[in-house]
Amino acid sequence: MSKRKIIFDTDPGIDDAVALLTLLNYDDFEVLGITSVAGNKGISHTTDNASKLIRYAQKDIKVYRGAYSSYERVKEGLEAQGRDGGNVHGIDGLGGVGLPVDPNNISPISAIDFILDSVKTYPGEIEIISVGPMTNLALAIDRDEKTMRNVKKVWSMGGGVFRGNVTPVAEFNYWFDTLAVEKVYSLGISVDIVMVGLDATHQCIFDANDLTFIRLAGGEKGSLIYAMVQDYLQAYWSYNKYIGIVIHDLLPVLMAIDPTVCTRLVHSNLRIVHQGLTKGQCIVDLADSWKLEKNVYVAMDMDVRKCKELFMEVCFGKEVKETYCLVFPAL
């Protein structure tokens, strides 16, 4: 049986890093490439961070540099917008852990070209896991919509129905580039798009016990992740009073591996607000009030225990998962 073909579109980012280290450890995925995008940090940082993670994981995979700013600014040739994810992810986006870049794994081919070439080569087979702003996907649609309609599936971390984080109603990835969101979801009638937004991700809090277990039981990789998340941990205490973290970008990876980690998935219509006080807000018609064509599958509820066990197994191995179950028996 052939492996599922994955493109990981990302703006690393601490949660992106944990998601990528998990993705790369899953044997049934063939990760064709990593495409970088501006978001949590500027494009130079996010491209280098993706390179660092590929080098650390010792994988023969290329990183393809993508959009330096939002869809509108790229189209108009404007400079990158000033705001990124700030210090939530540390000064370098990876909590300052000091991983080295490998310039040899950064391809001269652009993310847009790589995405389109991959879909042309494997029509109906490519799954894109998008955990940053959707700018690269929107630019690829702009270039060749017919080809992008042959994407098999998009798993997106972004948005929210009942909550935000960059504003009370808007999640960062979707707020960063609302026009890209609108363009990508225009494919949603013919291409399955799964939105794993804040309603789902905030259900899965890795608390202090989980993080300590990762450090103690997860070997070198566990120690790296623990060191990486310290700025993140401080941010969640400051903003949410969580003694723990939400690893947002991990959830669509886990859901792509095992869709049953989601216990409520709603087929709906999504639109997004582009301007004003509610910029970035997702208008999701959960009740089907408008009777519009459905363009999204929205993850609303997650089996948190199943998510954590799957993460432990895929990222660190079956033994670590079994130990986790012994140390933290299910209620």
What's the arrangement of secondary structure elements?
Blueprint: E1 4-10, H1 14-23, E2 29-36, H2 43-57, E3 63-64, H3 71-76, E4 106-107, H4 111-121, E5 126-130, H5 135-143, H6 145-148, E6 153-157, H7 172-176, H8 178-185, E7 192-196, H9 198-201, E8 205-207, H10 208-217, H11 219-228, H12 230-240, E9 244-246, H13 250-257, E10 262-268, E11 270-272, E12 282-284, E13 296-302, H14 304-316, H15 318-327
Parallel strand pairs: 1-2, 1-5, 2-3, 3-4, 5-6, 6-7, 7-13
Antiparallel strand pairs: 8-9, 10-13, 11-12
Helix pairs in contact: 1-13, 4-5, 5-8, 10-11, 14-15
Jot down its keywords.
331 residues, Inosine-uridine Nucleoside N-ribohydrolase, Chain A, alpha/beta, two-stranded antiparallel sheet, nine-stranded mixed sheet, 15 helices
The total tally of domains equals: 1
Mean pLDDT: 95
pLDDT under 50 segments (min length 5)? none
The backbone outline, from C-alpha atoms, is globular
SSE topology string: EHEHEHEHEHHEHHEHEHHHEHEEEEHH
- Summarize the amount of helix as a percent range: 40-55%
Overall CATH architecture: Alpha-Beta Complex
SS summary, helix count: 15
Q: Describe the oligomeric state of these chains in a short phrase.
A: single chain
Given this structure, which CATH class is correct?
Alpha Beta
Q: What class, by secondary structure content?
A: alpha/beta
Which homologous superfamily in CATH is the superfamily? Ribonucleoside hydrolase-like
The number of distinct β-strands equals 13
**Rg of Cα set:** 18 Å
